Amino acid sequence: MNLNTSWTFVLAALICFIVSINATRDTCDRLPSPQARIWCQKLEKWHNDAKGQVKKAKVVHPPGVDLGAAGFLQPSADLGLVQTRLDECIDFKCACDFIEGAEVNGDDCILKGGQPMQKVIRREYRTLSDGERKRLYDAFWELHNSSQYHHYVGQHRHANTAAGAHAGPAFVGWHREYLKRLELSMRSTDPTLFIPYIDWTFEDALENPEDSVLFSEYLMGESPPPPAGGFGNPGINRSVGATFNGTKFRPIALENVTYLLNLNNDKFDIGFLPFPAAERGCPYLDLNNGSDIENIHGRAHLFVGGDMSDFPTSSNDPIFFMLHSFVDYLWETWRQTKQTAAQRETQYPRDDQRCSTVQHFLSANMYPFTPLNNRDGLSNNYTKFLYEYAPSPTCSDSLPLGCNSEFLFCDLSHGAPRCSSKIKPGAKCGGYTRGEEPCYRGECVGDRCVLSPDGTPRPRTTPQPTPGGTLPKTETCYNENKCCQNWAARGQCNLNPDYMRRTCPASCGSCTPTRYRLDDGMLPILEHIRRVQKQLGVDGDGRELSGELRNLLQRTTTLELMRSKIRRLTMKIVICGLLLGFARAQDPCASAPNPTMRNLCLQIQRWDGRARSSASRKTVALPPGMAGDMAVGAPKNPFAAGASMAADFAPIAANIYQCMTLTCMCSYLQGTTAPNGQCTLRNGQSLRKAYRKEYRQLSDAERQKLHEAYWSLKNSGEYDNLARTHRDADRAESAHAGPAFPMWHREFIKRFEFALRQIDPSISLPYVDWTMDAALPNSKDSVLFSSYLMGEHRGRTGCLGAPFANWRTIEGRACVMRATGMNGTLKPMEQRQIDALLADQNVITMLGFPARRNGCPYNLNFNILEFVHGQSHLFIGGDMGDTPTSSNDPIFFLHHAFVDYVWEMWRERWQSRAEREIRYPPDNQQCSSVQHFANNNMMPFTPMKNRDGLSNMYLDNLWEYAPRPTCSAGNVNGCASQFLFCDLSHGAARCVSKIKPGARCNFYQRGESPCYRGVCRNNVCVITGPAPPTPRTPSRNPPKRILPQVQENEYDFDVVVIF
Q1: Predicted local confidence at residue 28, as pLDDT
Q2: CA pair distance 667, 656, nearest whole angstrom
């Protein structure tokens, strides 16, 4: 290198260094206030410190795990993760293991006193009762005295231990997990406790926020240090409302909060998942104006001052956790109002090192909470299982006491009414001119708050609360993965030290357990592998474990054969290695648009895996004399000339269920067939095609007959016989996970309708148009889910009530279970989904391959009919939420009648009569199991083939559909049902289910009558006049006789020729 080149290089490096220094200065200098600029500089420092930790605190993976092509961690040893402490739990079933005297009951945790552990509701700190506040103080002190508080303080202290805590989009998710852990630790002694939030806008509403009663011995303690009050501690420093260079620090302002909560979802990466430390080249750099959640939360930090003003010391102060509870409250409020459930768990800014450090990347480890990743902080499970938020107090001119706290008052003198913190004694109180009472326990005299004679006197000293419980001693040395011992034995502590020393410190010798012994016993490992094997059938790619691994597991269950310690350890290593290698298969459902659809996808994958396994053990039965080339899937075009089965022209109906004409049915119903084909039943009525109407358009008599017939089938055992047909993949392989799905269910509900018509030939199977329930703001409030129609369940997940109470399931349970509307914001099938299905003429889009495998030329499409139909299953939940149990619920058949109707609407829109019977997705084992091939037997409905489900004979001969209910502004009564109304307030007029009594109804402004048999009063449906009659309970008397299903020959060859 010559001299000129050297100087050029040095000069370029110097320029780059100067530019990097000035980049930070430019970013912070342009912010609008000194307070914002100071906080910006603190974020920049954290950002730079974290960048320096990338090499020694890098993103780490379990042994044998790589980043996938899309940058997401592939699943492997993650299936072996264990919760070793209460604060790692994300549901009560897990928490139960760590709470003394608690027991698991289903999905509930029953505490020692017999009460279930429940979600807590985090409220504004000043709305707590004295007793609640006292218990909160006790819990904080107990944590402090047990040293657990110091453990949590240490986790937040430095960028080298918690790089993703600040200066990037992982900020909110990291602190959500952090708060959850502290809260669960507190709940170990008092399960009713929660971390309240402090709404800092109540302080900012004061001319002098530092005069808030919040900073007094009555609440969070006064400063200068040491603060008094419930957290009086000489080790905490504060300087509330300090002035810096002539600028007085203030907390979070109402306009800050309003700005954030009004951001639309497309601004999620500016408001709540921002890049506050972006560098040159980052596309977000110019958007950083200090208004994002991380910057505005810094206002409260600096306002409180002292320890709170700097990251390493801020969590010393208990007020830190109430500030971050408020931050989490704002984020969750925005998520609930601006995002769908799926968006909450998937939307995250693009990884870009110009915008944040790698520790903020979506798949980066959430240090020190490994093995969590940043994406885990987006989970809906936090507020689904553990906590939710009560709204922050509000008031108005007409409701000045709405603030609901002795520490708050309604400020009417400064713009719109708003809750404000009361002012502590001795502080200034002028400026209130509309009769407010701004002083805590006193009055404003000479612009100063003075205690009233009967006010609470200031205590001489600040008493330390007496702890109310005893925290259990906890182990600090533990592994977080059940494969740790095996990895350590393979040398992974040295080969992969970053992951191993964080996840497996006990096995790597980084610490020594004091409350347990590291055990190399085989049984726990084997039990865990069996659990993982079960998970893989759901969460993996649908494959079964190899025969070799199954045999290995079976052989090693006998511990007596493994007496040698070396052999036992070797076998554990081999099994764990085989398990991890198998588990690395990519999750086929990872691209699901939301967790609900992923859950459905996993159910379909499980069905597909079992069906494929069943196929390897079975042969498809063929009539005598059929050539081998007609075996499963052989015809490339099963509809081509010559491809039909030799005996197909000859099958006869061996029982009523195989009938495809009314003439055939007539003989089984003991009717008489006239020469013109008309069937006259014994009661003189004609047997006609079924006319399937929307369930809510049935007359009271029709609905009662339907329910009576249901009970007759149940009491005879025939309902259960049919339900079992749908339960098992090895009996009904083509029912799910492939293109035969609608054909199989068409035949299935035909048979169910025939069973009903054996009870009463005038009955037709109605359909439930789910879009009329989905159109309600709260679909679970539909009158459909009441005793007047299809029944209501008790509790979050409970037994179904009348008219199907005590409906015993095929598993022997005493009742059908439902959890209607308890799956977050999930709705049943929606009109937009029906419109999308009907708008696409591609048969692959309608029928599709929901369990495709690598090599299938068709992409996984979550908009196909089978996925869309599953939305209603999961919305109802309980038995309906899982494929094997779904047919327990009487609503199953009404649901599938609607699915069949949607499919038929598509067929009639896009296909000619001839095309309806021949258009079928191609046979391809990479796309579906062979049981879905067009020419395969439709098990267990032999001798039918899947292609027979395409026949026009179903609707030509057996049933037709009444049009879906409609209305218009000129015909508001068009819905033609006492259970429906015409919604004029939400776009085009449409029929919507009425709302059941007691549910909210304040969503309609154009004169609609949305309440069933009542009116909307105070935003709630209230029955007016006499209560609507409760439908008559169906008879439990012995049912009418169902004709026996005689087993006969199913082919009508009269002559047997033997050659």
Answers
A1: 80
A2: 9
* Pairing verdict, β 672-673 and 679-680: antiparallel
Query: How distant, in Å, are the alpha carbons of 587, 723, 725, 742, 888 from that of 719?
Result: 37, 6, 10, 21, 9
In this structure, are residues 921 and 845 in contact, taking their beta carbons and an 8 Å threshold?
Answer: no
The CA-based dihedral angle spanning residues 534, 538, 544, 550, taken in that order and rounded to the nearest 10 degrees: -10
Query: Cα dihedral sign for 849, 851, 855, 860?
Result: positive
What are the two backbone dihedrals, phi and then psi, of residue 443, each rounded to the nearest 5 degrees? -140, 165
Q: Is 680 helix (H, G, I), strand (E, B) or coil?
A: strand
In angstroms, the CA 937 to CA 621 distance is 8
Question: What residues have CB less than 8 Å from 148, skipping those under 6 apart?
Answer: 185, 471, 474
Amino acid type, 65: V
For residue 541, how many C-alpha atoms fall within 13 Å in the half-sphere facing its CB?
A: 15
Describe the chain by its helix, strand, coil percentages, rounded to 5. Answer: 40, 10, 50
Write the DSSP assignment of 324-353 as a string of letters: HHHHHHHHHHHHHHH--HHHHHH--PPP-T
φ, ψ of residue 379 to 5 degrees: the values are -60, 140
- Which tokens hold the place of 65? 């795990």
CA-to-CA distance for 79 and 85, rounded, in angstroms? 17
Where do we find the tokens 């408020």?
Answer: 326
CATH top-level class of 689-961: mainly alpha
212 - beta bridge partners? 423
How do residues 737-747 score in pLDDT, each as one tens digit?
889 999 999 99
Lowest mean pLDDT among 277-291, 579-593, 595-609, 649-663: 579-593
Distance CA 587, CA 535 (A): 12
**Is 950:944 a contact under the CB 8 Å cutoff?**
no
CA dihedral 550, 555, 556, 560 (to 10 degrees): 170
Query: Residue 101 is encoded by which pair of tokens?
Result: 């005297």
Q: What is the rounded CA–CA span in Å between residue 140 and residue 153?
A: 13
Residue 1027's pLDDT is what?
65
Q: How far apart are CA 292 and CA 272, in angstroms?
A: 6
Beta-bridge mates of residue 105 = 108
CA distance 918 to 738: 17
130-206+219-389 architecture in CATH?
A: Orthogonal Bundle (1.10)
Beta strands at 243-244 and 247-248: parallel, antiparallel or unpaired: antiparallel
Planar angle of CA 927, 932, 935, nearest 5 degrees: 120
For residue 274, cis peptide bond before it (omega within 30 degrees of 0): no
CB 241 within 8 A of CB 303: yes
For residue 376, give the H/E element and its range. Answer: none
CB distance 737 to 928 below 8 Å? yes
Query: What are the tens digits of pLDDT across the range 431-463?
Result: 999 999 999 999 999 999 998 877 555 443 344
At residue 651, the 3 state secondary structure works out as strand
CA 145 and chain centroid, separation: 37
847-871 burial code (b ≥16 CB/10 A, e <16):
bbbbbbbeeeebebebebbbbbbbb
Residue 674 CA neighbour count, 13 Å, CB half: 8
Placement of tokens 């896009």 in the chain: 910
- φ, ψ for residue 968 (rounded to 5)? -150, 170
Rounded CA separation 580/490 (Å): 14
Q: Where along the chain do the CATH 1.10.1280.10 domains lie?
A: 130-206+219-389, 689-961
Q: How many other β-carbons are positioned within 10 Å of the β-carbon of residue 633?
A: 18
**Cβ-count burial of 989 within 10 angstroms (0-12 exposed, 13-18 middle, 19+ buried)?**
buried
Rounded Cα–Cα distance for residues 1009 and 1011 (Å): 6
Question: Cα–Cα distance between 505 and 512 in angstroms, integer?
Answer: 8
Q: Helix, strand or coil for residue 995?
A: strand
pTM score over 0.70: no
- Pick 157 or 672 by higher pLDDT: 672
Pick the closest to residue 168 from 285, 77, 276 (CA basis).
Answer: 276
